[in-house]
């Protein structure tokens, strides 16, 4: 969310002071003590509607003004970006690398007075990481994959970089390295055992048989919390490639329950269980903006001229 908003503030030439106020308000609320305490509390995964409500509340905590339609599209874009990055991870432990990359990336956009908040968040993440094992990360990844399953939106940034096809399916390059763990080997080796000993070793052709460990991480020395040892770039700012990343954004191509309708949001708001589960949404909107002035931020080109995107743009 911070990456996308920062991109649009820059694209619309919003003055530096106002941009900093918006980013500061968003991060102060997003990483506040109460919000993070609730976020780190063990609990079931939030529903789609509850998650959208959280981001909607966060967007109202600054001097930035977004249309409801813009918030929905922002949420769809964030969801697709998370899905893309999540599916690119080769090992469950890369989830902590992905998360730390994101936190450190956000630090580049926030004022100096907000930095301690992000530093504290990083320490909480590392403390939680020390209580988890590979199996825990596997189940986290599984839950997140299920959360994003069956949802496809064309993203112009991915299409232009050939990371997505015209049907909205992601395209991935072949793997370039092995996970730097002693238990991970390149595929293609077949061993036959007898009495617990290897008696025969053969090889079969495989396209990934030539894969090697990353040159900067020796097998058995991988510490996924250290920047110098990281093997994934997931979590870095992919929206820093140009000012028109969102202006060219296309529409959803798969019908169904991908979008959260106003009716669905209203139904969730009336459920006692969802009200309790959506406590994060209440915490997100607890703080008031640091300025009373509102900046109307246009995320998508069709919102600025009141027209729908042309067929060519829909295919971009």
Q: What brief labels describe this structure?
A:
316 residues, mainly alpha, two-stranded antiparallel sheet
Provide a concise account of the structure shown.
With 316 residues, the chain is mainly alpha-helical. Helices cover 45% and strands 5% of the residues. It has one domain.
Topology:
Blueprint: H1 2-11, H2 16-30, H3 33-39, H4 48-59, E1 64-65, H5 68-87, H6 94-107, H7 115-129, H8 134-148, H9 156-160, E2 189-194, E3 197-203, H10 262-269, H11 272-277, H12 279-284, E4 295-296, H13 301-305, H14 311-315
Parallel strand pairs: 1-4
Antiparallel strand pairs: 2-3
Helix pairs in contact: 1-2, 4-5, 5-8, 6-7
Pfam family, one: Oscp1
Organism: Angomonas deanei
InterPro entries: OSCP1
């Amino acid at each position: 969310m911070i990456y996308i908003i920062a991109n649009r503030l820059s694209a619309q030439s919003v003055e530096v002071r106002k941009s900093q106020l918006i980013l500061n308000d968003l991060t102060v609320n997003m990483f506040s003590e109460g919000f993070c305490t609730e976020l780190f509390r063990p609990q079931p995964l939030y529903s789609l509607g509850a998650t959208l409500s959280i981001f909607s509340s966060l967007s109202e905590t600054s001097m930035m003004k977004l249309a409801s339609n813009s918030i929905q599209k922002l949420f769809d874009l964030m969801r697709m970006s998370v899905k893309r990055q999540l599916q690119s991870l080769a090992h469950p432990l890369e989830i902590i690398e992905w998360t730390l990359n994101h936190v450190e990336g956000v630090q580049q956009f926030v004022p100096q007075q907000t930095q301690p908040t992000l530093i504290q968040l990083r320490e909480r993440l590392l403390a939680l990481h020390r209580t988890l094992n590979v199996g825990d990360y596997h189940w986290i990844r599984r839950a997140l994959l299920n959360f994003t399953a069956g949802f496809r939106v064309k993203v112009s940034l991915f299409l232009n970089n050939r990371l997505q096809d015209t049907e909205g399916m992601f395209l991935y390059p072949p793997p370039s390295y092995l996970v730097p763990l002693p238990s991970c080997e390149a595929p293609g080796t077949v061993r036959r055992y007898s009495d617990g000993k290897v008696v025969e070793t053969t090889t079969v052709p495989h396209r990934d048989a030539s894969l090697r460990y990353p040159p900067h991480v020796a097998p058995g020395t991988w510490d996924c919390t250290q920047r110098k040892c990281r093997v994934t770039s997931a979590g870095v700012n992919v929206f820093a490639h140009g000012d028109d990343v969102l202006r060219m954004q296309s529409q959803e191509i798969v019908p169904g329950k991908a979008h959260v309708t106003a009716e669905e949001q209203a139904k969730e708001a009336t459920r006692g269980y969802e009200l309790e589960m959506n406590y994060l949404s209440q915490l997100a909107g607890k703080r008031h903006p640091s300025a009373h002035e509102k900046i109307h931020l246009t995320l998508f080109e069709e919102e600025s001229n009141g027209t729908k995107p042309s067929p060519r743009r829909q295919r971009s």
